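User: Hi! I'm working on a homework problem where we have to compare a predicted structure to a textbook description. Could you give me the structure for the chain below?
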Amino acid sequence: MPIHELLKKSLPDAMRAHDEVKLRTLRSLITAMTNEVVAKKRKPDEFLADDEALAVLKRAASQRKDSIEQFEAASRTDLAEPEKLELAIIESYLPAMMSRDEVEIFVKAKLAKTAEGGSQGAAFSPAASRGKFTGLVMKELKGQADGADVKAVVDSLLF
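Assistant: Happy to help. Predicted structure tokens:
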């Protein structure tokens, strides 16, 4: 079942369970997805494809993470807690991401491969073009790893 459709079907269950946080989160996600459908010049009753829905979910998760950071920096734990609950619900609909250790293993293998000229045809220095190397890794790990983790691992291994 497509993610967008799954969210819509989860709404009545949240209503029956009187789960206000899940209900609020699902409503905001469904609204964001409907807005995305309209922005793509399609009818509002259409469903997003899974890759489009995942982009909306990742955007929502990122917004919650930013809010949590800002609230905690301002010592407003009372406002950070509901955001954490919403983030947990959003993440339950996202595919599992690679851990930082898994990313490090992948990056080390990719470094070894590019050092011998493996995937590029001709060897290039990852240290000289850190951004390009990070882009290559992100392209291969599309949707499987957090970009911040990839960047941190690449930076730690190259410098």
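For your comparison, note the following. Residues 50-73 form the longest helix (24 residues). The chain has two domains: 3-93, 100-158. Good luck with the assignment!
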